[in-house]
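Notes continue from the previous slide.

Worked example: a multi-chain complex. Inputs as given:
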Amino acid sequence: MELTISIILGFMIIGAIYALHAKDLLSAVIAMGIVGYGLVICFLLLKAPDLAIVQIVVETITLVIMVAVVLDSTRKEVEIKLDRRTIINILTGFVVFAGLFYFFILAIQNLDPLGAHSLRMSEAYVEGAVEKTGSVNLVTGVLFDFRAYDTLGEAVILYTAALGVLTLLRIKGKK
Amino acid sequence: MEGMSIIVKKVSQLLAGLIFVYGIYIILHGHLTPGGGFAGGAIIAGAFILLILANGSSALNLKKEISGSSNTESLAILMVVVLAMMSLAFGVKVFFSNFLPKGEPGELLSAGVIPLYNIFIGIEVAGAILTIFLALVIFKEESSK
């Protein structure tokens, strides 16, 4: 199973790199779709169907909206001129990448193997969750009982996003 | 916004109901099977988006719809907070406590307030995604005039 996930992750990385460098913006959007749907298959293989359902629906809706936006505006990528500022930006990017990669290596040496749970909190959640919450689906039990504050925060974020879009677009449309 | 050809229109009309019912099933069975408020709400919003994209609609109709969907999502998020506050009045007096009887695990009517939270979060997510989509469509219609 790890081999399958590695192959899919490889495809996702290729898709992401292609999306960055594509000349045509429409093909960049489609390449981003590879990343999203690859993530869905990874979630299914890692036995997380709850996340997979959310991811596949949200990915489809965002892909439709992105394709509509690209078809309606322009399909050409902005051309990059190589002046002094661009070179400084690229160098800064490389320095930040090197720093992040160093700390990534440091962090990954202290990780447990994939799927092994070592967190103290999660054991308390898993044991006797059905008696405590009454919900057979553990994920929903955690979402709406143990971690209900998080869920409220997520819902409020969505509400604020919708409010922000309404406000921004209304001001522009009235002019 | 113009609609598509008659084949797309008919197929989307046939499919939208099925997608809508599937979203309701995902929400109502959120405490039994994979899924829940977020997934089901996104599916329901997808059914509406499919209908609007395939059949098209005038900006005037969409404006009525956007006021309805934004009102619905506001009421739903308010209901979530009200439900959480109600647990301060009943049972153990803790914000977000499960104050209803839990029932038999595995039954449709079980898990206390969790199905109620699922339903209202589902309405909220569906309303929010639909509102964002409609706002973008109306903006495009008005700016192209």
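Summary box: Chain A has three domains: 1-79, 80-116, 119-175. Chain A has a mean pLDDT of 84.
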